[in-house]
Amino acid sequence: MLRSAGFEVQLYASAEAFLQETVAPKPDVVLTDIQMLGMSGLDLQSILKTRAPALPLMFMTAFPEDALRKRALDAGAICFLSKPFKATELLYWIEKALSA
């Protein structure tokens, strides 16, 4: 869906794989899940705050707990989307992140 909207998309098998990538260009925005195998999205956010503090980070989750939402947003996330969400909602937040 994002490619059909004109975005260049790079997928990673894990947060660790994303952090180890040295060849790909720097992303304009990161969309990550909260719960993943290995490192969580919140752990990734913590590392990215140090490595790339201006990089917009967006969360999505099937487990929209208020405490997780608050923690992610308080730490600077652009948004916290609860699955399922509409494509228009995702596109709105991506455009907002890119224009910030």
UniProtKB/TrEMBL annotation:
Keywords: Phosphoprotein. It comes from the Bacteria. Gene3D superfamilies: 3.40.50.2300. The modification 4-aspartylphosphate is found at residue 33. SUPFAM superfamilies: CheY-like. Residues 1-98 form the Response regulatory domain. This is Response regulator. The lineage of its organism: Bacteria, Pseudomonadati, Pseudomonadota, Gammaproteobacteria, Alteromonadales.
